[in-house]
Amino acid sequence: MKIDAMECAGRLLSKPADESMDVVVDRVDSQFQDLSARFRHVGKDFSKQYFHFYAQRLLSMKPLLLPRINQKWGHKIPVKTLADLKEDSSEKCIIVGTLYKHQELKPSILKEVSEEYQLIPQPIRSEFTDDDDQLILEDELQRIKLLGSLSAHDAITGIVCAVLGAEQAGGKFCVEDYCFPTPPGPSKPLSPPKDDRYVVLVSGLDLAGSADVLFPFELLVDWVSGWLGDVGEQKNQALVTRILFAGNTIRTQSANKGAALPHVSESLDTTSTLDAVKILDDFLEQLTSSIPVDIMPGEFDPANCTLPQQPLHCCMFPKAATYKTLHSAPNPYDFQVDGRRIIGTSGQPIDDIAKFTRISDRLTILERTLEWGHLAPSAPDTLRCYPYANEDPFILQDLPDVYFAGNQPSFQTKLYKGDDGKEVRLICIPKFSTTKSCVVLNLKSLECYTMSFGDALQEDSAEVEK
After folding, report:
1. pLDDT level of residue 17 (50, 70, 90 thresholds)
2. Closest of 272, 243, 215 to residue 440, by C-alpha
3. Measured CA distances, 112 to 80, 120, 123 (Å)
4. Comparing C-alpha atoms, which of 75, 159, 148, 143 is closest to residue 365?
5. In CATH, what number does 32-43+185-255+263-452 get?
6. What's the DSSP call for residue 423?
7. Separation of first and last alpha carbons in the chain
8. Which residue intervals define the domain DNA polymerase alpha/delta/epsilon subunit B in the entry (predicted)?
9. Which residues sit opposite 309 in a β-bridge?
């Protein structure tokens, strides 16, 4: 389903003033709870090695895997460690560990150093897969090369999984089947709203780089604020309880990308970024005066580059910050609104997995991360991440109601069903700077559709329902 905001504006202009202006429509109340405390840094310690992070991930996800193992393969097949394997034994067993993907084309700091000293020039790549990529399984003590049904092109480093098979000659493990720690449904299900309630999802505004995005964005702000459409349309807009900006609101590309003179370009881009922040503050002031607003940082926004990205400081938005309805959120972001739990990222984990696997469909990647039970499994291998030592905040303990990824090439959605019947709405939020569209989510039914605010909307932003 696709709705054009220009039609809404036309309805307002066609109505007599006394018929559309004298009616006051109140926005519905909303219940909200921020569940993202685990993504916020209380103290920062960068002295830890990433070994502790991987060890804690395996330790935390093993209890989630055991019920899946028993459900899929029963209790008769033994669960062993790599140290218990015997090369001359063909007995079937189950091994639990973390996948490591050996890739010759993976970027390396050693290769960058060799480029600096002009030893071996390295080609610029956007994808890093090769036919010779191999999977290796690691547990607490050892590692073993995997063969068989688990394809290296459909996996990445950092995934915790269980494999069923037997060791072969040469110290290799032949995989017959495998399973992942897909989280179950929540132990205490929430109560969804009995009436229609909507959340608007936006990403990739790129206010610093796209001059043609200002008018569509102004239409979006006017539509959410209730200034577009007739009385009937305004009553529907009053059912929107929240608007979420899922990253790259200020910028969608790096400041020095393709610059011949980086120091000159950086100065100019700094000016454009400051101007974009002021423009965003003006728009946020209009929004926060009528509706709660969540704003997440993205890959190229002025925030820390490592996941989890910390909330944008409210001093960046002096006008909007005067309203309590402005909520600066981290990336990833986990929250509960009107009886629905929503969690998602600004898109970096999905983009990273697309580079290091041969899974081209972004919605499929989003679904895989849900099945893997982890928001950012490729961190810290190929995705920059804070070096946690005693926890892994990206682990999904239970299934949410909505799972989204921002800054994707096109709008895609799917209703995922877990083994226990739990339904999760998966959403790929398109870039507003290219599609001029946002996503409208119905919290009651979990249905969603795009709302268009420009004539540049192409077929790639149409809903893909799978």
Report:
1. very low
2. 243
3. 40, 9, 11
4. 159
5. 3.60.21.50
6. E
7. 14
8. 199-412
9. 331
The domain ranges of the chain are: 32-43+185-255+263-452, 77-179
Residue 425's CB is within 10 A of a number of other CB atoms, namely 22
Alpha helices in 289-395 (DSSP H): 348-356, 362-372
**Closest to 200 in 3D by CA, of 422, 5, 416:** 5
Q: What's the CATH class of domain 77-179?
A: mainly beta
Cβ neighbours of 396 (radius 10 Å): 21
Q: Which residues of 231-243 are buried (b: 16+ CB within 10 A; e: fewer)?
A: eebbeebbbbbbb
67 phi/psi in degrees, rounded to 5: -60, -35
CA pair distance 133, 102, nearest whole angstrom: 6
Q: How confident is the model over 200-238, as pLDDT tens digits?
A: 999 999 998 777 899 999 999 999 988 887 787 888 889
Residues 6 or more apart whose CB falls under 8 angstroms from that of 135 comprise: 99, 100, 101, 102, 145, 146, 150, 152, 155
Specify the residue for token string 């970096």. Answer: 348
Asked if domains 32-43+185-255+263-452 and 77-179 share a fold, the reply is no
Tell me the two tokens of residue 63: 């209890």
pTM of structure = 0.89
The amino acid present at 71, given as its one-letter code, is: Q
**For residues 166 and 92, what is the distance between their CA atoms, to the nearest angstrom?**
5
Q: How far is CA 183 from CA 27, 74, 205, 347, 410, in A?
A: 35, 18, 33, 21, 27
